[in-house]
Specification:
The complex is a heterodimer of chains A (about 260) and B (about 80).
Chain A (H helix, E strand, L loop, with lengths): L1 E9 L8 E13 L2 E6 L3 E5 L3 E8 L6 E2 L4 E2 L6 E9 L4 E4 L1 E2 L10 E3 L2 E3 L6 E2 L4 E2 L9 E2 L24 E2 L25 E2 L36 E2 L7 E2 L6 E6 L3
Parallel strand pairs in A: 14-16, 17-18
Antiparallel strand pairs in A: 1-2, 2-3, 2-4, 3-20, 4-9, 5-8, 5-20, 6-7, 7-15, 11-12, 13-14, 18-19
Chain B lengths: L1 E6 L2 E7 L9 E2 L10 E3 L2 E4 L2 E2 L3 H24 L1
Antiparallel strand pairs in B: 1-2, 1-3, 4-5, 5-6
The chains are: A mainly beta (about 260), B alpha+beta (about 80).
Protein backbone atom coordinates (compact mmCIF):
# COMPACT_ATOMS: atom_id res chain seq x y z
CA UNK A 1 0.00 0.00 0.00
CA UNK A 2 1.35 3.43 -0.90
CA UNK A 3 0.37 6.50 1.10
CA UNK A 4 0.62 10.11 -0.01
CA UNK A 5 -0.21 12.93 2.43
CA UNK A 6 -0.68 16.50 1.27
CA UNK A 7 -3.01 19.39 0.54
CA UNK A 8 -3.99 20.85 -2.84
CA UNK A 9 -4.42 18.95 -6.10
CA UNK A 10 -3.70 15.25 -6.40
CA UNK A 11 -3.33 13.18 -9.53
CA UNK A 12 -1.98 9.74 -10.24
CA UNK A 13 -2.59 7.89 -13.47
CA UNK A 14 -2.82 4.46 -11.84
CA UNK A 15 -6.60 4.50 -11.57
CA UNK A 16 -6.55 6.98 -8.72
CA UNK A 17 -8.85 9.98 -8.96
CA UNK A 18 -7.78 13.50 -9.79
CA UNK A 19 -9.21 16.03 -7.37
CA UNK A 20 -8.54 19.18 -5.40
CA UNK A 21 -9.00 19.53 -1.64
CA UNK A 22 -8.49 22.59 0.53
CA UNK A 23 -7.61 20.61 3.67
CA UNK A 24 -5.22 17.79 4.55
CA UNK A 25 -5.66 14.26 3.27
CA UNK A 26 -3.94 10.96 2.60
CA UNK A 27 -4.29 8.90 -0.58
CA UNK A 28 -3.89 5.15 -0.22
CA UNK A 29 -3.31 2.92 -3.23
CA UNK A 30 -4.82 -0.46 -2.34
CA UNK A 31 -3.72 -2.06 -5.63
CA UNK A 32 -5.73 -3.42 -8.55
CA UNK A 33 -7.00 0.12 -9.21
CA UNK A 34 -8.58 0.32 -5.78
CA UNK A 35 -8.00 3.42 -3.67
CA UNK A 36 -8.99 5.23 -0.51
CA UNK A 37 -8.72 8.87 0.53
CA UNK A 38 -8.59 9.81 4.23
CA UNK A 39 -9.66 13.38 4.92
CA UNK A 40 -7.92 14.50 8.11
CA UNK A 41 -9.18 18.07 8.31
CA UNK A 42 -12.25 19.85 7.01
CA UNK A 43 -12.17 21.31 3.52
CA UNK A 44 -13.78 21.46 0.09
CA UNK A 45 -13.43 18.58 -2.36
CA UNK A 46 -13.81 18.88 -6.14
CA UNK A 47 -13.49 15.78 -8.34
CA UNK A 48 -12.43 15.95 -11.99
CA UNK A 49 -14.76 13.13 -13.01
CA UNK A 50 -17.89 11.50 -11.67
CA UNK A 51 -17.26 8.63 -9.26
CA UNK A 52 -19.29 6.07 -7.36
CA UNK A 53 -17.85 5.96 -3.88
CA UNK A 54 -18.34 4.57 -0.39
CA UNK A 55 -17.96 7.06 2.46
CA UNK A 56 -17.11 6.18 6.07
CA UNK A 57 -17.46 8.86 8.74
CA UNK A 58 -16.34 9.08 12.37
CA UNK A 59 -17.42 11.87 14.74
CA UNK A 60 -15.05 13.49 17.21
CA UNK A 61 -14.31 11.84 20.55
CA UNK A 62 -15.87 13.07 23.77
CA UNK A 63 -13.83 14.53 26.63
CA UNK A 64 -12.98 12.68 29.81
CA UNK A 65 -13.90 14.17 33.18
CA UNK A 66 -12.38 13.71 36.62
CA UNK A 67 -13.29 14.46 40.22
CA UNK A 68 -11.59 13.67 43.54
CA UNK A 69 -12.69 10.03 43.77
CA UNK A 70 -14.66 9.41 40.58
CA UNK A 71 -13.79 9.78 36.92
CA UNK A 72 -15.11 8.80 33.51
CA UNK A 73 -13.74 8.51 30.01
CA UNK A 74 -15.27 10.12 26.96
CA UNK A 75 -16.91 7.99 24.30
CA UNK A 76 -15.56 7.39 20.85
CA UNK A 77 -17.38 9.19 18.07
CA UNK A 78 -20.18 7.41 16.31
CA UNK A 79 -19.52 5.93 12.87
CA UNK A 80 -21.64 5.80 9.71
CA UNK A 81 -21.33 4.31 6.24
CA UNK A 82 -22.82 5.47 2.95
CA UNK A 83 -22.44 3.04 0.05
CA UNK A 84 -22.66 3.71 -3.69
CA UNK A 85 -22.71 7.48 -3.42
CA UNK A 86 -22.80 9.20 -6.82
CA UNK A 87 -20.23 12.01 -6.60
CA UNK A 88 -20.36 14.49 -9.48
CA UNK A 89 -17.50 16.06 -11.38
CA UNK A 90 -16.87 19.75 -10.74
CA UNK A 91 -19.18 19.95 -7.72
CA UNK A 92 -17.85 21.43 -4.47
CA UNK A 93 -18.38 18.96 -1.62
CA UNK A 94 -18.00 20.28 1.92
CA UNK A 95 -16.27 17.79 4.19
CA UNK A 96 -16.54 18.65 7.89
CA UNK A 97 -14.36 16.87 10.43
CA UNK A 98 -15.70 16.97 13.99
CA UNK A 99 -13.14 18.11 16.55
CA UNK A 100 -12.22 16.06 19.57
CA UNK A 101 -13.85 17.72 22.57
CA UNK A 102 -11.74 19.49 25.19
CA UNK A 103 -14.95 19.58 27.21
CA UNK A 104 -18.35 18.19 26.39
CA UNK A 105 -19.38 16.20 23.34
CA UNK A 106 -17.17 15.65 20.30
CA UNK A 107 -17.91 17.49 17.08
CA UNK A 108 -20.16 16.12 14.35
CA UNK A 109 -18.55 14.91 11.12
CA UNK A 110 -20.48 15.41 7.87
CA UNK A 111 -19.87 14.61 4.20
CA UNK A 112 -21.89 13.61 1.13
CA UNK A 113 -25.18 14.17 2.92
CA UNK A 114 -24.33 11.86 5.84
CA UNK A 115 -23.31 12.70 9.40
CA UNK A 116 -21.81 11.02 12.46
CA UNK A 117 -22.29 12.53 15.90
CA UNK A 118 -19.44 12.98 18.29
CA UNK A 119 -19.03 10.81 21.37
CA UNK A 120 -20.51 12.08 24.62
CA UNK A 121 -18.26 13.29 27.43
CA UNK A 122 -17.71 11.46 30.66
CA UNK A 123 -19.40 13.00 33.69
CA UNK A 124 -17.73 12.92 37.09
CA UNK A 125 -19.08 14.36 40.33
CA UNK A 126 -18.13 13.92 43.96
CA UNK A 127 -20.29 10.82 44.41
CA UNK A 128 -20.69 9.27 40.97
CA UNK A 129 -19.32 8.96 37.45
CA UNK A 130 -20.95 8.16 34.12
CA UNK A 131 -18.97 7.18 31.06
CA UNK A 132 -19.76 8.86 27.77
CA UNK A 133 -21.89 7.00 25.22
CA UNK A 134 -21.11 6.91 21.51
CA UNK A 135 -19.24 4.73 19.03
CA UNK A 136 -17.58 2.82 21.89
CA UNK A 137 -18.42 3.65 25.47
CA UNK A 138 -16.23 5.48 27.94
CA UNK A 139 -15.25 3.74 31.17
CA UNK A 140 -16.39 4.93 34.60
CA UNK A 141 -14.96 4.29 38.02
CA UNK A 142 -15.19 4.98 41.68
CA UNK A 143 -13.53 1.63 42.39
CA UNK A 144 -10.88 -0.10 40.31
CA UNK A 145 -9.52 1.20 37.03
CA UNK A 146 -11.59 0.36 33.96
CA UNK A 147 -10.93 0.29 30.23
CA UNK A 148 -12.83 2.04 27.48
CA UNK A 149 -15.00 0.14 25.05
CA UNK A 150 -13.80 -0.93 21.63
CA UNK A 151 -15.39 -1.78 18.26
CA UNK A 152 -18.80 -0.56 19.36
CA UNK A 153 -18.85 -2.12 22.83
CA UNK A 154 -19.75 -0.52 26.16
CA UNK A 155 -17.10 0.95 28.43
CA UNK A 156 -15.67 -0.79 31.47
CA UNK A 157 -17.08 -0.51 35.00
CA UNK A 158 -14.77 0.24 37.92
CA UNK A 159 -17.28 -1.23 40.39
CA UNK A 160 -17.46 1.28 43.19
CA UNK A 161 -18.71 0.04 46.55
CA UNK A 162 -22.09 1.48 45.60
CA UNK A 163 -22.65 -0.26 42.28
CA UNK A 164 -24.99 2.43 41.04
CA UNK A 165 -22.41 5.18 41.42
CA UNK A 166 -20.25 4.34 38.40
CA UNK A 167 -22.06 3.67 35.16
CA UNK A 168 -20.06 2.96 32.00
CA UNK A 169 -21.07 4.54 28.71
CA UNK A 170 -22.83 2.60 25.98
CA UNK A 171 -21.28 1.79 22.63
CA UNK A 172 -23.23 1.91 19.39
CA UNK A 173 -23.52 -1.89 19.40
CA UNK A 174 -22.19 -2.33 15.87
CA UNK A 175 -18.64 -2.37 14.56
CA UNK A 176 -16.65 0.85 14.36
CA UNK A 177 -14.18 -0.56 11.85
CA UNK A 178 -13.52 1.27 8.59
CA UNK A 179 -16.38 0.74 6.13
CA UNK A 180 -17.90 -1.49 8.82
CA UNK A 181 -15.89 -4.43 7.48
CA UNK A 182 -14.18 -7.01 9.69
CA UNK A 183 -10.76 -6.27 8.16
CA UNK A 184 -11.08 -2.49 8.35
CA UNK A 185 -8.97 -0.23 10.54
CA UNK A 186 -10.42 0.24 14.00
CA UNK A 187 -11.75 3.65 15.10
CA UNK A 188 -13.68 5.30 17.91
CA UNK A 189 -12.36 3.56 21.03
CA UNK A 190 -13.74 4.74 24.36
CA UNK A 191 -11.60 6.55 26.91
CA UNK A 192 -10.30 4.68 29.96
CA UNK A 193 -10.82 5.64 33.61
CA UNK A 194 -8.10 5.16 36.22
CA UNK A 195 -8.15 4.91 39.99
CA UNK A 196 -5.67 3.13 42.22
CA UNK A 197 -2.65 1.19 41.02
CA UNK A 198 -4.25 -0.25 37.88
CA UNK A 199 -4.32 1.48 34.54
CA UNK A 200 -7.62 2.08 32.77
CA UNK A 201 -6.68 1.45 29.17
CA UNK A 202 -8.22 3.32 26.29
CA UNK A 203 -10.35 1.20 24.00
CA UNK A 204 -8.57 -0.02 20.85
CA UNK A 205 -9.28 2.41 18.06
CA UNK A 206 -7.76 5.53 19.57
CA UNK A 207 -9.35 5.77 23.00
CA UNK A 208 -7.21 7.64 25.52
CA UNK A 209 -5.69 5.72 28.41
CA UNK A 210 -6.82 6.82 31.84
CA UNK A 211 -3.28 7.21 33.14
CA UNK A 212 -1.51 5.44 35.99
CA UNK A 213 -1.84 6.31 39.64
CA UNK A 214 0.82 8.85 40.65
CA UNK A 215 3.04 7.94 37.71
CA UNK A 216 1.31 8.95 34.47
CA UNK A 217 -1.27 11.47 33.35
CA UNK A 218 -4.32 10.39 31.37
CA UNK A 219 -4.09 10.57 27.59
CA UNK A 220 -6.14 12.26 24.90
CA UNK A 221 -7.91 10.29 22.22
CA UNK A 222 -5.76 9.82 19.12
CA UNK A 223 -6.23 12.39 16.35
CA UNK A 224 -8.33 11.26 13.39
CA UNK A 225 -9.66 8.18 15.17
CA UNK A 226 -12.57 9.74 17.06
CA UNK A 227 -11.21 8.13 20.23
CA UNK A 228 -12.58 9.29 23.59
CA UNK A 229 -10.44 11.09 26.14
CA UNK A 230 -9.08 9.32 29.22
CA UNK A 231 -9.48 10.36 32.86
CA UNK A 232 -7.91 9.71 36.25
CA UNK A 233 -9.23 10.70 39.68
CA UNK A 234 -7.87 14.00 40.95
CA UNK A 235 -6.85 12.40 44.27
CA UNK A 236 -3.84 11.21 42.24
CA UNK A 237 -1.14 13.81 41.71
CA UNK A 238 -1.37 12.82 38.05
CA UNK A 239 -5.13 13.17 37.99
CA UNK A 240 -7.23 15.00 35.45
CA UNK A 241 -8.99 14.40 32.17
CA UNK A 242 -8.12 14.75 28.52
CA UNK A 243 -9.67 15.64 25.18
CA UNK A 244 -11.16 13.33 22.62
CA UNK A 245 -9.51 12.72 19.26
CA UNK A 246 -10.75 14.38 16.08
CA UNK A 247 -12.91 12.49 13.62
CA UNK A 248 -12.24 11.47 10.04
CA UNK A 249 -13.87 10.87 6.65
CA UNK A 250 -12.62 8.03 4.46
CA UNK A 251 -13.84 7.48 0.91
CA UNK A 252 -12.97 4.75 -1.58
CA UNK A 253 -14.02 3.56 -5.01
CA UNK A 254 -17.22 1.59 -4.52
CA UNK A 255 -16.54 -2.11 -4.09
CA UNK A 256 -19.28 -4.66 -4.48
CA UNK B 1 -7.04 25.07 14.21
CA UNK B 2 -10.54 24.37 15.48
CA UNK B 3 -13.59 26.48 14.67
CA UNK B 4 -16.93 26.90 16.42
CA UNK B 5 -20.01 26.86 14.21
CA UNK B 6 -22.63 29.24 15.57
CA UNK B 7 -26.37 29.23 14.97
CA UNK B 8 -28.66 31.70 16.72
CA UNK B 9 -26.05 32.47 19.35
CA UNK B 10 -25.37 28.82 20.24
CA UNK B 11 -22.36 26.66 19.36
CA UNK B 12 -23.81 23.84 17.27
CA UNK B 13 -20.55 22.16 16.25
CA UNK B 14 -16.80 22.35 16.80
CA UNK B 15 -14.78 21.29 13.77
CA UNK B 16 -11.21 20.90 12.58
CA UNK B 17 -10.30 23.70 10.13
CA UNK B 18 -9.88 24.92 7.49
CA UNK B 19 -13.49 25.85 6.97
CA UNK B 20 -15.08 24.45 3.80
CA UNK B 21 -15.94 27.10 1.20
CA UNK B 22 -18.98 29.16 2.19
CA UNK B 23 -19.06 28.00 5.82
CA UNK B 24 -18.68 30.56 8.62
CA UNK B 25 -17.04 29.84 11.96
CA UNK B 26 -15.14 31.41 14.83
CA UNK B 27 -11.49 30.49 15.44
CA UNK B 28 -11.04 28.94 18.90
CA UNK B 29 -7.31 28.67 19.52
CA UNK B 30 -6.96 26.97 22.92
CA UNK B 31 -10.31 28.20 24.24
CA UNK B 32 -12.16 25.06 25.47
CA UNK B 33 -15.48 25.81 23.82
CA UNK B 34 -18.06 23.02 23.74
CA UNK B 35 -21.20 22.33 21.75
CA UNK B 36 -24.07 24.09 23.51
CA UNK B 37 -22.04 27.08 24.72
CA UNK B 38 -23.42 30.55 24.04
CA UNK B 39 -21.76 33.13 21.78
CA UNK B 40 -22.48 36.86 21.76
CA UNK B 41 -20.42 39.99 21.20
CA UNK B 42 -17.26 38.00 20.54
CA UNK B 43 -17.43 36.04 23.80
CA UNK B 44 -18.27 32.40 24.55
CA UNK B 45 -20.25 31.64 27.69
CA UNK B 46 -21.28 28.51 29.62
CA UNK B 47 -23.75 28.61 32.50
CA UNK B 48 -23.50 32.39 32.46
CA UNK B 49 -19.70 32.43 32.83
CA UNK B 50 -17.17 33.38 30.15
CA UNK B 51 -15.28 30.39 28.73
CA UNK B 52 -11.64 31.23 29.47
CA UNK B 53 -8.43 30.00 27.88
CA UNK B 54 -5.97 28.24 30.25
CA UNK B 55 -3.85 31.43 30.37
CA UNK B 56 -6.91 33.52 31.23
CA UNK B 57 -7.91 31.05 33.96
CA UNK B 58 -4.45 31.32 35.51
CA UNK B 59 -4.53 35.12 35.35
CA UNK B 60 -7.96 35.18 37.00
CA UNK B 61 -6.84 32.81 39.77
CA UNK B 62 -3.71 34.91 40.36
CA UNK B 63 -5.85 38.03 40.63
CA UNK B 64 -8.17 36.33 43.12
CA UNK B 65 -5.16 35.12 45.10
CA UNK B 66 -3.71 38.62 45.23
CA UNK B 67 -7.04 39.99 46.42
CA UNK B 68 -7.25 37.36 49.18
CA UNK B 69 -3.67 38.07 50.23
CA UNK B 70 -4.48 41.77 50.47
CA UNK B 71 -7.60 41.05 52.53
CA UNK B 72 -5.64 38.75 54.83
CA UNK B 73 -2.93 41.36 55.30
CA UNK B 74 -5.58 43.94 56.14
CA UNK B 75 -7.15 41.65 58.75
CA UNK B 76 -3.76 40.97 60.35
CA UNK B 77 -3.13 44.72 60.69
CA UNK B 78 -6.42 45.44 62.47
Amino acid sequence: MRICRRTGIYYNGNGLPKFSYTGTYEVLDDGERNWRIKFLTSGTLILDRALTIDAFLVGGGGAGEAEYAFCAGGAGGKTSLSSSVAAMAGTSYAIVIGAGASSGTGGTTTAFGASSDGGANGVARSTYATGGSGGSGGAATGGASASGGSDGSDGGDGHAADESSDIPGNGQGTTTREFHESTGDLYAGGGGASRGSGEGYGGAGGGGTGGAYNTAYPQAGTANTGGGGGAQITYSSYGGARSGGSGIVVIRNHRA
Amino acid sequence: MNYAIIENGIVTNVIVGPLPDGMDGVVLGDRPVAIGDGYANGAFTRDGETVLTPAEQIAELEAQNAQLQATLTGLQQT
